[in-house]
Amino acid sequence: MAPIRRVWVTRAEPGAARTADRLTTLGFTPIVTPLLTLAPIPGALDAAPSPDAVAVFALTSPNGVEAFAPLIPRFRTHPVFAVGDATAEAARAAGFTDVRSASGDIHALARLIAAEAPPGPLLAPGAREPAGDLPALLPNRPVQRLPVYAAFETHAPPPEPFDAVMLHSPRAARALASSLAADLPRAASSGHIAICISEAAATPLRPFDFAEIRIADAPDEPAMLSALGKPAAPV
Questions:
Q1: Phi-psi group of 124: left, alpha or beta (phi > 0 → left; psi -120 to 50 → alpha; rest → beta)
Q2: Measured distance CA(85)–CA(100) in Å, rounded
Q3: Most buried of the four, 9, 84, 111, 152, by CB within 10 Å?
Q4: Residue 228 · residue 7 · CB < 8 Å
C-alpha cells in the first residue's frame, strides 16, 4: 500500500481546522471538505431544567459544550463526565469546575458515570442525532437528553486527488455513504483508505470498494492520526 500524503478531512468546522493543523504538523497535506455542518437548535436551551433538578452532566462532544455554553454559569459547579479528553478540555474552558474524562467512547462514559457519579438526575446536552444511546446504557439512572445542536449534510463532492479520508463519527460516515450511493465517481472510494474513529463509523463504508478501512485503536483523533502512518514524501 502506497504511503498516504493527501488527507480528506470530512468533519465539521471548527474541528476540521484543528484536524488540518495537526495533519500539517505531521507532514500530511490536509484537504478540508466537510461533509457535515453544525448549527445550534433554536430555542433548545429553553427546555433545560433548573440547576436543582440536575445532579450530573454527561457531555459527548465539544460541540455540545459550545451549544450549551450560555447556560454553563448556572451549572458550573455540577459534576461533569465527558466522553473524552477533548470534550473534557472544552468543558473546563467553558467554565465547568468539576470535570472527569472517560478517555474513550460512550460505553466508557457510561461505565465511568455508573462507577463514580453521585446519584440523581443526569442531563446530557448534545446532538439531535447522538452517536450512541446513553439512557439505554444507564438503565438505573434518570437521564434527560437535551438536543442542543444538529448536524446537516453538506453534499460536498469528494476532492481530487486524495489518498485517505478521515471519518470522525458514524454521522459523517453515513453522509459519505449516502454520497457514494448517489453515484458519485467511483474514485471517491476505489483505491483510497478510510480512517475511522470506531467500528460504528466504519460500518456504513463496508459496501464500498475502499482499498482499506482502518479503525483507530482508540475512539479519538490521536489514534486516528496514528492509523494514518507516516506521510509519503512530497512529490
A1: beta
A2: 9
A3: 9
A4: yes
Residue 189 has a pLDDT of: 67
Within 13 Å and on the Cβ side, how many CA atoms surround 177?
17
Exposed, middle or buried, 182 (CB in 10 Å: 0-12/13-18/19+)? exposed
Largest Cα separation within the chain, whole Å, is 60
Burial of 46 per CB tally in 10 Å (0-12, 13-18, 19+): exposed
3-state secondary structure at position 122: strand
Contact 7, 163 (CB under 8 A): yes
Q: Average pLDDT of 204-215?
A: 95
Contact predicate 80/98, CB 8 Å: yes
Average pLDDT of the chain to the nearest whole number:
92
Strands (E), the chain: 6-9, 29-32, 36-40, 56-59, 79-82, 98-101, 122-127, 143-153, 164-167, 193-196, 212-215
Tell me which H or E stretch contains 133.
none
Mean pLDDT of 77-103: 96
Task: Give this prediction's pTM.
Answer: 0.82
Torsion sign over Cα 182, 186, 187, 191: positive
